[in-house]
Automatic annotation (TrEMBL):
Coiled coil: none
Keyword Zinc: yes
Pfam family name, one: Aldolase_II
UniProt KW keywords: Isomerase, Metal-binding, Zinc
GO MF, any single term: L-ribulose-phosphate 4-epimerase activity
Domain Class II aldolase/adducin N-terminal: 15-206
Catalytic activity: L-ribulose 5-phosphate = D-xylulose 5-phosphate
Organism lineage: Bacteria, Bacillati, Actinomycetota, Actinomycetes, Kitasatosporales
Family (UniProt): Belongs to the aldolase class II family. AraD/FucA subfamily.
Highest taxon of the lineage: Bacteria
Name of the protein described by the UniProt record: L-ribulose-5-phosphate 4-epimerase
InterPro entries in alphabetical order: Aldolase_class_II_sugar_metab (IPR050197), Aldolase_II/adducin_N (IPR001303), Aldolase_II/adducin_N_sf (IPR036409)
Enzyme type, top EC level: isomerase
Names of required cofactors: Zn(2+)
Amino acid sequence: MSVVSESLSFGDLRREVLAANLRIPEAGLATLTWGNVSGVDRDAGVFVIKPSGVSYADLTAEDLVVVSLADGRVVEGHFKPSTDTETHRCLYRAFPHIGGVTHTHSTHAVAFAQARRPIPVLGTTHADTFNGPVPVTEDLTAEQCARDYEYNTGQVIVALLEGDPQRAEEVPGALVSRHGPFTWGATATTALENAIVCEAVAEMALHTLALRSPVDAPEPPQHLLDRHFTRKHGPDAYYGNTAAVAATAR
């Protein structure tokens, strides 16, 4: 489908992206307008994203901006898209399995980003979603900040993950140094949920690191962490009732 030859509306995608954006303040992930969610329609070659600086209280589906995946131009919308739009576009182009991207400035995840420390795997809650630490990027260079800053922000995330789609799927998030978390998933909804988990495990990690000592609390056993990740992800996953519901329907 061409983004220039057909009338665009993307009703379902707009509604999902709107709902995901509205959950950012509900989940306590943003102050003021600090955050955004997007969702992609790869067949149409576009993604839908929150407009820049519009408050969540005022946000409607019609306010969302449709952006070309190929070149970043605005295809539809009466507002400017989020200033983070080019970071989203970079991630979509690097990882074809991604269907949604979320960026927030949530307090505890930002604390790790500002300290330039990955969020460590300290227990099973983390391992349920992230198959390893949530990594942190290198600082952007002066040249990267001076030109195409937002796209280069995406590039440092891609470089951090070595462009590996499997790694991006197993660890669906990263911290941009001195900045904050970006998370992603198969849909805009999943990307937002991964942002909620990222903030939760960052808060748990900070409390755990404050309480424990290396002598009293060694690293958790890898077999335990693996068990928690694989029961929710991959071919042998059994968490939840989606499969059971589908079987009943048949």
